[in-house]
Amino acid sequence: MSIVDSTTLAKFYQCSENAPLDCRKPIETTEKIPGARFCLECGFPTTLPVLTELRSSLGAYRISELLGFRGIGRLYRGTQIGNGQSVVVKEYLLPKQYFNAVEAQQRRTALSQVVKGNLTIQKGREFRLVTPFDTIAEQSSDRLYLIFSGEIAALPTLKQVLTERSFCAPQVRQVLNRILQSLHFLHTQPSSFTSEATVTAHGNIGLDSLVISDNGYVYVCDLAFWEQLFVPAPPQMLSQQQDLIDLGAVAFALWTSRGIHSGSEVSLNPREVQHWPQDDPPLKDFLLHLLGLETPFNSAAEARQALSELPQPKTVASFQGNLSPKPPAKKKFRYWLLCLLTLPLIGGLLWLLLLPRFESNFDTEVTGFKQLLPSFADINGIQPGQYPYTGEALGTWTIILDKKPVSDRKIREFLTQPKLDTAAIFNYRTYAPQQSSFNEVLKANAKANFAIASLSTQLPEGLIKETIAYDGLLVYVPAYKSQNLPSTLQGKIALTQLQQIFTGQLTNWKQLGENFPDLPIKPYRPMETEALRLFQQKVLGNDPSLIAQFNKIEQRSSFDTLRSIAVGEKQAQRTEAGSISFGLLTQTWDQCKIYPLAIAKKNLKPVQPLLKETTNGTMRPISPSDNLCREKKNLLLNISAFHTETYPLSTPLIVAYPRDNNLPGNVSGPLFANFLKTQDGQYFLQQTGLVPLQAVPKNHTLSSSIWNR
């Protein structure tokens, strides 16, 4: 997922083109006033004149022409003075508008480490990774440079090349195979770019971070480690799992080819069943796993192995196609014949190609929210009738229906008859099925057309799921300042520690380290079966022996635990100070007397599920020093972390309905999901503590058809 965007700079300059890096005005300024350093119109730094010389401790370089820009920097072609070898120079800027002196110096220092952390590729092996061999980061300059040898870094990007071609399923398979090879190499490298114990990941996959040669080789450029240095925001955690998800996103967009080739503004979403092509079911199943919508792969190597073992659909028997674009009017790329000769090599190309387009579909952008139908009144196709459905008795949906997020009326009242002009009645009942509410749908579809629940178990055969939001668990400790567990824990806890605590292996906080208080750990299991199943899956790995120990932990309802922590605080500090528990989002996310802990999975950085809005309008993870009661109106769930499941305790909330079109739920299930996926439906769900499919704008108001009921 691309983390840099050239339009970021437009926020700080009054550029008439709203794109300073791609604007002609800075060039025109230097043509009118030789030697000018800033654009006459907006003050943006001008381009480097031809013959400008740049010097570092390793050599000197002369600029010969401006190539354009890529990502968040300008590109120049040049030569190395002394040996005449071709180089490509990428220029980064440190505008004083958003980098103070300390921040600028930090970035100069970090950039100077890039070459020292270069990836070492075995002789004779080609993994198509473009890394610089020199840096220039002068202490007093607001311009910094990376130097790349040869011409590879100057090749056209996938964004430039792949706007005229669509791709069939066999071609997508070829792409996946080659890019997974590149990812496997990258992910198995030591983390040499930084002294911190972090994984090596690309982190910035997108159309602009891949380039393609005439013979179809695709090269991976612009790793996040150096690109995000010039984004005015805290560095993002790099995740190998996110690289796999992003590759899945690219493959999905590549396969559907919507928008880029058709010019359509209608976006596609891999969570929508009807948006998938139907010509290669095994590939679809593979991509669902790669995207993390089904059980994710643990590594690029595992994914590549699974890809190689996919059965071949009938339509894959013969694979002859052209992955290359038509030559532009002014530039002739010889792709036609080369494509057929180098099909396996072109795989690299598409990997990172369509990610930015996918981001508008898959990420929680406000622009995506605006594309949703406004309200329940806009949903058509529902006929009058009775449509019973079910869910967990103490589960998320039961809690939601009784909430009153926008008035004194429960959500149940709005959803029982979503359209007042149609007598379609959706009655919710909870049953006591032997296994789960999903099984109830299959056993008695006349009594329960469909079910709504968190996907904590494998969906039974015969059901189709439709995601309507994201749910999960918060693990929390009391926010008491006297005992101050949040600060002692540094606001985080590892999954392994949770497992040890909730199976009785750790009984005193002192066992976690010498800085911890000598305080008994008091874990509490909630009563809600949906929360228990999620915990058993996400933390205990559904291990029967661990679950047996887990079942010995004292149990009380989330309501009682939260009340015990909040009521009579002085007394509670004596009895609840060492407590730790977990609960469903809808019960815990807005409780300010507790502190939700960031969760760390294996060797990855901990992910905080709750964000706080800062005074400048940006969002940052909460910290133990925050007064959550005072900041309550500025808190928001970490939407991206739940969507990508980088927050380990997240899960989709789904509508599950029968695949059999002879059963009533096959029609009523997806229609009810459509009500919930309107702007009003997503707003309702967000207000109750769920994570919406699309970020809801702050200024969103419910439609008149809701208010006038």
Automatic annotation (TrEMBL):
The keyword Cell inner membrane does not apply. Keywords: Kinase, Membrane, Serine/threonine-protein kinase, Signal, Transferase, Transmembrane, Transmembrane helix. The keyword Ligase does not apply. Residues 61-420 form the Protein kinase domain. It comes from the Bacteria. It holds the Pfam family PBP_like_2. The chain crosses the membrane at residues 335-354. GO terms for molecular function: ATP binding; protein serine/threonine kinase activity. PROSITE patterns: PROTEIN_KINASE_DOM. PANTHER family: PERIPLASMIC PHOSPHATE BINDING COMPONENT OF PHOSPHATE ABC TRANSPORTER, PHOSPHATE-BINDING PROTEIN PSTS. This is Serine/threonine protein kinase. It comes from Hyella patelloides LEGE 07179.
